[in-house]
């Protein structure tokens, strides 16, 4: 049930983005993405619950630390999962942004220089993981 501003407690809200007439907030220590409607003062949990990793309609995050809004999607810095997650606000599905051609442990300096030389010169080099996969 949505609650008004005075009844909602945030734990380390460090990222915000404005879109669709609402303010989206990363509530880091609760591992949730919240939305605030400035017209009504209602705050709702848009995504997340316990800390973890799960894509799809009921995603889990692990202390997300930032977000941005574009094209009716939220790009979320899922800090302790070391991933960028994408929440499509039209479908409410979350996926993980995958970068191809980057070695595990990237960006170590010696790996970075070697990888940059081997990266394909054509785009795209970004793909999405399957909604339910890691």
Query: How are the strands of the largest sheet arranged?
Result: 1-5-4-3-2
Looking at the overall shape, the CATH architecture is Beta Barrel
Q: How many β-strand stretches?
A: 10
Under CATH, the topology can be stated as: Thrombin, subunit H
**Overall CATH class:** Mainly Beta
Describe this structure in words.
With 134 residues, this protein is mainly β. It has a single domain, classed as Thrombin, subunit H (Beta Barrel). It is built from 1 helix and 10 strands. Strands 1-5-4-3-2 form a 5-stranded antiparallel β-sheet, with no helix packed on it. It has a 5-stranded antiparallel β-sheet with strand order 6-7-8-9-10, with no helix packed on it. The longest helix is centred in the last third of the chain and has 10 residues. The chain is globular and about 45 Å long.
Ordered list of secondary-structure elements with their pairings:
Layout: E1 3-4, E2 13-19, E3 22-27, E4 32-36, E5 42-47, E6 66-70, E7 73-78, E8 83-88, E9 93-99, H1 109-118, E10 126-128
Antiparallel strand pairs: 1-5, 2-3, 3-4, 4-5, 6-7, 7-8, 8-9, 9-10
Summarize the entry for a quick read.
By secondary structure, the chain is mainly β. 7% of the residues lie in helices and 40% in strands.
Descriptive tags:
134 residues; mainly beta; Thrombin, subunit H; five-stranded antiparallel sheet; 1 helix; disordered N terminus; disordered C terminus
């Amino acid at each position: 049930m949505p609650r008004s501003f005075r009844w909602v407690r945030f734990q380390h809200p460090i990222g915000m983005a404005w879109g669709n007439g609402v303010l989206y907030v990363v509530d880091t220590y609760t591992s949730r993405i919240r939305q605030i409607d400035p017209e009504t003062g209602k705050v709702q949990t848009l995504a997340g619950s316990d800390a973890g990793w799960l894509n799809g309609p009921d995603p889990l995050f692990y202390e997300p630390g930032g977000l941005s809004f574009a094209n009716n999607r939220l790009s979320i810095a899922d800090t302790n999962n070391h991933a960028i997650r994408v929440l499509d606000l039209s479908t409410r599905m979350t996926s993980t942004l995958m970068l191809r051609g980057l070695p595990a442990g990237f960006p170590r300096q010696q790996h970075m220089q070697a990888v940059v030389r081997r990266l394909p010169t054509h785009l795209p080099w970004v793909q999405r993981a399957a909604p339910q996969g890691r």
